[in-house]
Amino acid sequence: MELLRQKNVASRIVFPLISTVDRPEYFTGTAWGSLTNASVTAYSWQDGQAAATLAISGTPTELGSTGLWELALTQGEMNPDSGSDDYIVVKLNADEIDEQTVLIILQDYDVKTVVRAVDDEGNTLANEAKQDTIDTVVDAIKAVTDNLPDSGALSTIDSNVDAILADTGTDGVVLADDAITAAKFDETTAFPLESADSGSTEVARTGADGDTLETLSDQLDAVETDTQDIQSLIGTPVDLGDGATLADNNTSLAGKTASAASYDRTTDSQEAIRDRGDSAWATGEGGIEKGVNLDNFTFLMVDSTDHVTPKTGLTVTGSISKDGAAFASLTNAVSEVGNGVYKVNLDGSGDLDIDFGCLRFTATGADARYISFKTES
Fold it and tell me: Which of 63, 225, 251, 308 is the residue whose CA sits 20 to 30 A from 205?
């Protein structure tokens, strides 16, 4: 790396050290004195002369834990060969780091106050070339300033600028109160407003009933107050199915079941139940299914004396005529329920695998009970 420094002035140079283990990472965390085979060597020379060894008294130190290292050079070290030499090269080496070489170019002047000029190939130009460049720039500035008006004209300009600032302000254009009238306001253009407007400037037309933005805002607040409790009054919305219109949902809502989670509009609405009832009445459906067990089939037995009073405590025998055939015993026995009512489990394959049937129940002291039915598939 290359640095530009002033001769005969103590200086500090800063440079990175690269780890030989973690290239290209910076080397950090170990003091210079703890490195293996650590060395700092330096040489100085002037243009066209051989280099001579330069003794360096300082020791490199790391700046924090940055991997950037600093080396201090004394005033004497920065003035090699009593100021005759123009260059210093410092070499730093150790087993843990890659060799780092720092070239210091010595100048007779303070390099911080000089603009460094370079040619197209990056070579430093001679001092005379730098001075010529600076002189050209200064002449150009002077050519412009020589044409400025005299102090009186500048004073007039200053007064005019102050007047403009008074009218426009420093934060934007200052408008007089009520400066924007309906006749001047262009509704197609957006005008930003600030709350600091102290006047009664109107920037929106009033409605036919005299409403302004303020009155409309008040009315919207009133609407919000009137409607904000609607949700609490109607409760949580319920998905009523796939009805696309309000009429569909009203039809579904009328037949809503207690459990919204199990509700299906296509089967549970009043409309769906009505349609199933109409179909059942028209086709005779809704009775005993063919070939399917029918448990707890109940019937009433009455006293044979008055033919009205329910008869309890009977031993009832059940039989069935299948599709017009002779009566035959039912598969299962009859048992008493109570109050003259008895029940029997009808077997799907033994009793009900038919189209038409007639049940016959008999018992001593009771009228025989006949029940005819038609099965449905």
Answer: 225
